[in-house]
Design goal:
23% of the residues lie in helices and 24% in strands. The chain has helices at 12-16, 40-57, 116-129, 177-181, and strands at residues 24-28, 31-35, 65-68, 86-89, 106-110, 135-139, 144-148, 156-158, 161-164, 173-176. It is globular.
Length: 183
């Protein structure tokens, strides 16, 4: 298959029909986002986050379920399809398809050089519009995390300890960023 025309608008059905070629295809308001396979550092940081968030949620499975990409989150739209690197949804939204995944309690993107603009601008705006409760943009090169919530105009910049609660009355998860980003 030839490289898709990035100037035209696509639908979810069209993107889902693309053959597997090693790239990640996402769609925000019809705009096609194409990302190549991530770097090893990206995968290392993501793996550490998955382990940490999984251990945090393990004692409280009734509050949230952790997933990692690939996953086709569309919010039922025909012009939106995203694949957060890591995300948490309520257990009641887990089913055999991704269509039921509508409430993202946490969405995480580990920034790569080629995904930075989309993660920080295009997808961030979509996540805010869709009411994603907490969105982390993890920048391993800069050794920081941007924390966004739906009404935020600017992110909270975290450089030491990242904190998150799956629910208001839940225990707090603490992630030491020095450990997270260490080689």
């Amino acid at each position: 298959m030839a490289m898709p025309d990035l100037a035209r608008r696509y639908t979810v059905d069209e993107v889902l029909a693309f053959p597997s070629d090693g790239n990640r295809y996402e769609l925000v308001d019809g705009e096609l986002l194409v990302t190549p396979a991530p770097r090893p550092r990206h995968q290392l940081v993501l793996t550490r986050l998955v382990g940490t968030v999984s251990a945090y949620l393990s004692p409280v499975p009734e509050l949230g379920v952790l997933f990692v990409s690939p996953a086709d989150i569309t919010w039922g739209g025909s012009d939106r399809l995203v694949q957060p690197d890591l995300f948490v949804i309520p257990p009641g939204e887990v089913s055999d398809t991704w269509v039921s995944a509508r409430t993202l309690l946490l969405a995480v993107e580990v920034v790569s050089p080629r995904s930075s603009r989309h993660d920080r601008v295009t997808k961030r705006r979509l996540y805010q519009r869709q009411g994603v409760r907490t969105y982390w943009i993890v920048d391993a090169d800069a050794r920081l995390v941007e924390v966004w919530r739906p009404g935020d105009e600017r992110p909270e910049i975290v450089t030491n300890v990242l904190r998150w609660k799956v629910a208001d009355d839940a225990a707090e998860l603490e992630i030491d960023l020095e450990e997270l980003f260490g080689w």
